[in-house]
Amino acid sequence: MVELKITTIGNSAGVVLPKEVMARLKVQKGDVLYLVETPSGYHLTPYDEAFVRQVRAAERVLKEQRDVLRELAR
After folding, report:
1. Parallel/antiparallel/unpaired status of strands 12-15 and 34-38
2. Which residues contact 36 (CB under 8 A, 6 or more apart)?
3. Model confidence pTM above 0.85
4. Collapsing DSSP states into helix, strand and coil, what is residue 12?
5. Phi and psi of 6, rounded to 5°?
6. H/E/C letters for each residue in 23-37?
7. So what's the pLDDT on residue 14?
8. Which residues, including other chains, have CB under 8 Å from residue 31's CB and lie 6 or more apart?
9. Tens digit of pLDDT per residue, the chain (74 long)?
10. In this predicted structure, what is the pLDDT of residue 13?
């Protein structure tokens, strides 16, 4: 567990992520993180779960409807 302290950043509040946490998340300054509420608490992730689901759905459509899409492309 990593303890984060809420601090003032300009007119807002925020937390500073230690280098070790950023390395484990594989993120760097300027990247976007998502705070997702789960039944067991909050989950901080660099991945947008909704976007991942959309990409997977699109991949299924592309695979299942390959012939239809090929015809539409003509």
Report:
1. unpaired
2. 42, 43, 44, 45, 49
3. no
4. strand
5. -75, 130
6. HHHCCCCCCCCEEEE
7. 95
8. 46
9. 899 999 999 999 999 999 999 999 999 999 999 888 889 999 898 987 787 888 889 888 888 888 988 888 88
10. 97
Q: Which domains does the chain have, with CATH numbers?
A: 6-73 (2.10.260)
Q: What are phi and psi of 38, to 5 degrees?
A: -125, 170
Give whole-number Cα distances, 47 to 21, 41, 44, 56, 58, in Å: 15, 17, 9, 14, 17
Distance between CA 31 and CA 51 in Å, rounded?
16
- What are 72's two structure tokens? 């539409």
